Amino acid sequence: MKRLFMFTLFLTAVYLFQSTSSLAQRPSLDTRAIREDYRRLQNQLEDLLVAHNALKTEVSKLHSEVRLLRAKTATKDPTTANRDDLEGLAKSIREVDRKRVQDKDLILKEMKALLRSGSIGTRTT
């Protein structure tokens, strides 16, 4: 009986030792999984920060380009014509055309006068 009791005590001790070691491994496995998740999340965060910084630099470049374009469009280019310039040019062209018609009428009038005076001068026989 004493041997049976000792054998049972030995089996109980082995069982407790085995369950204790498996319990000790379980937190170790959980800790490893948590550490792996932490590292994975940390790497993802680093990637996001790198992407964020790249986007920030791209946005700042775009802002500076927009500022330059706004400054360039704000200054008037002397080689471009605006509506007032075109209206003034059209007015000048109308004035030149009106004077051309007046000159044409004056020339025709003078030619008719010369023809009349010339025909009178040639009829004298």
Based on the model shown, name its key terms.
single chain, coiled coil, mainly alpha, 125 residues
Would you give an account of this structure?
Residues 31-58 form a coiled coil. Keywords: Coiled coil. The protein has 2 helices and no strands. With 125 residues, the protein is mainly alpha-helical. The protein has a domain at 84-125. The termini are far apart.
Summarize the structure.
By secondary structure, the protein is mainly α.
What does the secondary structure layout of this molecule look like, with pairings?
Elements: H1 2-74, H2 83-122
Keywords: Coiled coil
Low-confidence stretches: none
Q: How far apart are the first and last residues' alpha carbons, in Å?
A: 181 Å
Number-wise, the strands total 0
- Strand % is under 5%
Q: How would you spell out the order of helices and strands?
A: HH
* Percent helix: over 70%
Mean pLDDT: 86
Q: Decide which structural class fits the backbone.
A: mainly alpha
Q: What is the gyration radius calculated from CA atoms?
A: 53 Å
Figure out the total of helices: 2
Main beta sheet: none
